[in-house]
Amino acid sequence: MVSPCLRLLLNQIEIEGDTSSGGGMTRLSQMIKDEIPGTYVLSVKLGSSSLIDFLNSYLMPINQQIETVCQMVHSDPNLSNGFHLIGISQAGLFVRALAQRCPPKVLGSVISIGGPQQGVYGLPQCPNATANPFCQYIRRALSKFAYTDFIQSKFTQAQYWHDPLNEAVYKDRSQFLADINQEKKRLEQSVDIICLPSSQTVNVTYRNNLLTADNLVLVRFLHDTIVIPGASEWFGFYRPGSADTLYDTKESSQYKTDSLGLRTLDKQGRLHLIPLPGNHLQFSDEWFRDVIIKVFLNGRTYT
């Protein structure tokens, strides 16, 4: 009997997490295979062992991670006709970057579960830093060093540190997030760009690539104490000059200017903002099966 994968080339899926070998990622991969028989699932590992994978998820520059995964998926014959992307936690940001920089022949759903799309400005477990002197002190201390070349090149989390009190420094010095979020004022001449009214330049390729996705799915945990602020999971963030007042998705520059195609995706019914009660990554197998697999993964074939 010919397997469904060979007969129909069912959903090809690439899935990423902070460490792909964790029990949670293995369980989610198996759930996808059980729900959609014949599905090929690639769980990305950035190293030859679980320890190296773990260390690379925190110490390998994100741009290098994206390039490594890009080469990995494009050299995998099982993914040659297209795939979905699923990222858990910080990988929810990374898979969106992968879609913008290294899209497949056919891009299905790009799914971020708890991914900090606008970065972070705060320590885990310090959601109300302005009311906690220690958290506030640490946050300011981190900002003092986060944008140095050494820290930006050595620590993954620094590359999506977003200081709303120093937006100009963030946009100028951020080696990853400001670029992927279309906030850099200068791009290489070889990059196809357009200019926004603010004189900010936009990488058209990033926008066009993301617009090829069937869906952009952003899951936000409403009581998140790990991603600070939790609004970042939906492209919200602190207002420039403020460390406590937030703006929402539609107030973000990425939505208002449509520099990433968010407004277009929304108008076409392809931007999905999904709220979940509870803290970071608190979701059930039933929710993942019913909301993610059945709605956004099932149905698309790659032939």
UniProtKB/TrEMBL annotation:
The keyword Ubl conjugation does not apply. It holds the Pfam family Palm_thioest. Its EC number is 3.1.2.22. GO terms for molecular function: palmitoyl-(protein) hydrolase activity. GO terms for cellular component: lysosome. It is an enzyme of class 3 (hydrolase). Keywords: Disulfide bond, Glycoprotein, Hydrolase, Signal. Signal peptide: none annotated. Belongs to the palmitoyl-protein thioesterase family. This is Palmitoyl-protein thioesterase 1. It comes from Mesocestoides corti.
